[in-house]
Amino acid sequence: MPVSIKDIAKEANVSPSTVSRALNDHPRISPETKAQIKNLAETMGYVPSAVARNLVAKRSATIGVAIADLVDPYYVRQILGMEDVAAAYNYQIFLSSFYRNSKRELAIVQDFHERRMEGIIITGSETAETYLASKHKFFMPIVLINSPTYPFSVSINGFTGAKKVVEHLIELGHRRIAYITWGAEHPDGLNRLNGYQAALTEHNIALDETIIVTGDGSIAGGIKAVSRLLDLPQPPTAIFAFNDLTAIGVINALRQRGYEVPRDFSVVGYDDLEMAPHYYPPLTTVRQPTYNIGKRAVNMLFNLIRGDNSVTPEILEPEFVVRESTASVLIRQ
Amino acid sequence: MPVSIKDIAKEANVSPSTVSRALNDHPRISPETKAQIKNLAETMGYVPSAVARNLVAKRSATIGVAIADLVDPYYVRQILGMEDVAAAYNYQIFLSSFYRNSKRELAIVQDFHERRMEGIIITGSETAETYLASKHKFFMPIVLINSPTYPFSVSINGFTGAKKVVEHLIELGHRRIAYITWGAEHPDGLNRLNGYQAALTEHNIALDETIIVTGDGSIAGGIKAVSRLLDLPQPPTAIFAFNDLTAIGVINALRQRGYEVPRDFSVVGYDDLEMAPHYYPPLTTVRQPTYNIGKRAVNMLFNLIRGDNSVTPEILEPEFVVRESTASVLIRQ
DNA sequence: TTGTACGCGTTATCAA
DNA sequence: TTGATAACGCGTACAA
């Protein structure tokens, strides 16, 4: 249905290559024919076919981005950074979400290959080893976010992030600090757990596995975790949640039971969501440089596309933000 | 770099068309050659080129989705519905965000054309008239979300949504009900404003333009709006915010000034964000059928792609949800 | 300055 | 059952 370069050529009584040259501002063409053809293209409603162009050019000026969860602001804000850098390079982004399903993730990577993306970024992968195994042949560079063992990756330091949180709570006098995880398979899960443990060890606080419970990164998960924590013979005085949504669930569940934060329990989240400073109480949390990690990932990818394989894994530092959901253990009665 | 059908043909000593048939499970091919070629393709790491296939097939099995804001959960949840329907049809989605910039929106539509998407969905467009004007030639069907004047569109009824909110507040005894809008250009802005006015008129409450203020859909916008509202000689007793984020800003600003919601002011939001029931206080709001609207939009688009032009604009109804941020005006002292 | 010829990777048609 | 040929829309070498 769309009009092609040939249609214009026929209409203008020139050859298709002349039309091509006119449309691409090729130097060797007379100004008159160029103007005439451009006019004709306009009136005929010509729209160049990227698919034909990509076939012959062997490049698509497009990168594929696979994201763990389109609804999670943590991942979405990374996209913002990617978009800005990609736009500066005149590249487009093809975005797909695999919803934390490794099978879907691999299907997306396959699709990116078929579409001949020039590079791939995957954020939130739970199967990073796959991209190291040589049994798959990937003919385009792949950059992972938060898979620090992968050679081409950009990550945020979950170890120091978690450590700072726990140190802050210890400084406030807390000794029984619960930790709500997000299952073992979360890309950043192990790092943060190690940070949590390191802080305790450095302050000679024995690790108590009963106050490490598993959540799912959701508000509901935080609510459930509180039930388990408060049923303990010796409940914690502070709760470190895997993310802000979990923390919100925690605070709500505590309020339902008549407790107040931070008077009765200190609670810390992670991510610094847009509404974290506007929650009640404003959340003490860890701000992750999401926009920046997106930028860095695309920059690294372009280096790889250019053939510069000297890139090394990058690790960005998160920022600890104290607000009002944490307080000294002493204010408890 | 990637291996092509020709490479396999050479390796197997057959013609390219035989390889094509083997790979596509064509009926007229011997089982042995088929098996041999499939093996070869596997070991050689063959990945079919979607771009070459699309060129000859004149179809991409892909629809383009342009979205007003990737960070706004309201839009993102629509994508979820689209993805599910598209997947059922074996279609992929190419997603781009224009961040409420009409120029970028049109550039995305142009890009979709060049990539030969089979159809386009635009949600949150502020320039819907463009798609009616015949000066542009669009050679693929376009479905708009929340542009009810466009013939191929799916919308949520903002009129009844807003009306229900105001009726609820009136029932609680409120007479001075402020409304925080999101600028005139918001796709649903006028509909909701009309609903707001209709409810007031039906209850013989005079419209007071001084308590209709402009926000920007953000928490910060809600905070600013409160300043203007409380500086009025006769402040409102209830505030209807354009969305939940604005409502959160409102509630926070009120709390900062020592007021409590709903004791001193009733506040209503819009959207029913994931955390709306878990905010403090839990938000009275309007739940929009976002997932469903995404589904309907894709279904409509497929009808158009099939050539069925008998589609008519669809309007879905929102659902009013009462929680704890609203109360009778009588409980004020 | 313009036209001719060819190739990109794939599928479909026709002939063998 | 398989092979040769053409075509999709575009860009580019080479020839005119």
Helix fraction bin of chain A: 40-55%
The quaternary state of the protein chains shown equals homodimer
Please report the total strand number of chain A as a whole number: 12
Spatial order of the strands forming the largest sheet of chain A:
2-1-3-4-5-11
**Low-confidence stretches of chain A at least 5 residues in length (pLDDT < 50)?**
none
- State the distance separating the first and last CA atoms of chain A: 77 Å
How big is the Rg of chain A?
A: 26 Å
Instruction: Give the DSSP E fraction of chain A (strand runs of 2 or more residues).
Output: 5-15%
Shape of chain A: elongated
Element-by-element helix/strand order of chain A: HHHHEHEHEEEHEHEHEHEEHEE
Largest sheet of chain A: 6 strands, parallel
SS-based structural class of chain A? alpha/beta
Report the mean per-residue pLDDT of chain A as an integer. 95
Question: Helix count of chain A, per DSSP?
Answer: 11
Biggest interface pair, counts: A-B, 45 and 45 residues
Topology readout:
2 copies of one chain form a homodimer.
Chain A: H1 5-12, H2 16-23, H3 31-44, H4 50-57, E1 62-67, H5 73-88, E2 92-97, H6 102-114, E3 119-123, E4 142-145, E5 153-156, H7 158-171, E6 177-181, H8 189-202, E7 212-214, H9 219-230, E8 238-241, H10 244-256, E9 266-268, E10 285-287, H11 290-305, E11 314-316, E12 319-321
Parallel strand pairs in A: 1-2, 1-3, 3-4, 4-5, 5-11, 6-7, 6-8, 8-9
Antiparallel strand pairs in A: 10-12
Chain A binds a DNA duplex (16 and 16 nucleotides) through residues 4-6, 14-18, 20-21, 24, 28-30, 33, 48-49, 51-58.
